[in-house]
């Protein structure tokens, strides 16, 4: 089950500001109490993912980054790669170790792989997102970025070393099994209440989103022919389209998707 915190982030992605009372109404009759909603909001605020102003909550840039990294990667799978690589290089002092570790994790979520020590690369241009991250963390003076082509030292032979494709393949396999079982469960239901369908959609997005935070969405030339990504995206879209039919009668829900 998708966590309550992540559900709230997805809702705030579509509804820029929301009051606690509105969230309590959304979850009325469901498994979460008003106190659990307030606790989730407090945790998200401590993590720096949301802010609170005049009784209304909204996403911070950090909270937005958690979700937009996934959306960006979904967009990359339909684009043709032009052969350009984007590199991030840093030399961050030990006094900033925590920021260095955070930057490394953020780069991986954006799809960068570790080429050498403190050198990460991606086939996709994530420069605006990287700039935002390093500026928020005060690391601009320690980080350099470069865009260009390799004249020697091709990446082809090092793909599985730079990105753990075996692990990512396993994640897609688990997702395909989960989708198959979910489709069987839903096919037994004569109908699905709109709000139940909404939370099923959020869970679906979360399952694929967790994989996309690790999948760099490499160009096809670097992937094996039997790569499971396309099949996972196809089944994701089929289940999403099936579920969305049940929420179309609720305009308030559609605004959140």
TrEMBL record:
Listed SUPFAM superfamilies: Winged helix' DNA-binding domain
Database matches in InterPro entries: PaaX-like_central, PaaX_C, PaaX_trns_reg, WH-like_DNA-bd_sf, WH_DNA-bd_sf
Transcriptional repressor PaaX-like central Cas2-like domain mapped to chain residues: 80-154
Protein name: PaaX family transcriptional regulator
Domain of life: Bacteria
Domain Transcriptional repressor PaaX-like C-terminal: 163-244
One Pfam family from the record: PaaX_M
């Amino acid at each position: 089950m998708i966590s309550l915190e992540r559900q709230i982030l997805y809702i705030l992605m579509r509804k820029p500001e929301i009051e606690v009372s509105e969230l309590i109404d959304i979850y009325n009759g469901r498994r979460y109490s008003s106190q659990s909603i307030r606790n989730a909001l407090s945790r998200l605020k401590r993590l720096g993912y949301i802010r609170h102003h005049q009784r209304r909550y909204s996403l911070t840039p950090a909270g937005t980054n958690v979700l937009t990294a996934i959306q960006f990667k979904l967009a990359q799978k339909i684009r043709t790669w032009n052969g350009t690589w984007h590199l991030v290089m840093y030399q961050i002092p030990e006094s900033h170790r925590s920021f260095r570790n955070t930057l490394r994790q953020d780069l991986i979520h954006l799809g960068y792989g570790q080429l050498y020590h403190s050198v990460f690369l991606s086939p996709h241009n994530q420069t605006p997102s990287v700039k935002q991250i390093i500026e928020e963390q005060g690391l601009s003076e320690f980080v350099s970025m470069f865009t260009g082509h390799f004249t020697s030292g091709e990446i082809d032979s090092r793909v599985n070393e730079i990105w753990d494709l075996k692990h990512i393949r396993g994640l897609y396999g688990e997702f395909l099994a989960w989708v198959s079982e979910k489709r069987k469960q839903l096919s037994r239901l004569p109908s699905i209440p709109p709000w139940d369908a909404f939370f099923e959609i959020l869970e679906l997005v979360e399952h694929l989103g967790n994989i996309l935070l690790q999948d760099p969405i490499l160009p096809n030339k670097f992937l094996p022919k039997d790569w499971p990504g396309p099949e996972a995206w196809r089944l994701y879209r089929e289940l999403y389209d099936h579920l969305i039919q049940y929420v179309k009668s609720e305009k308030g829900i559609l605004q959140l998707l």
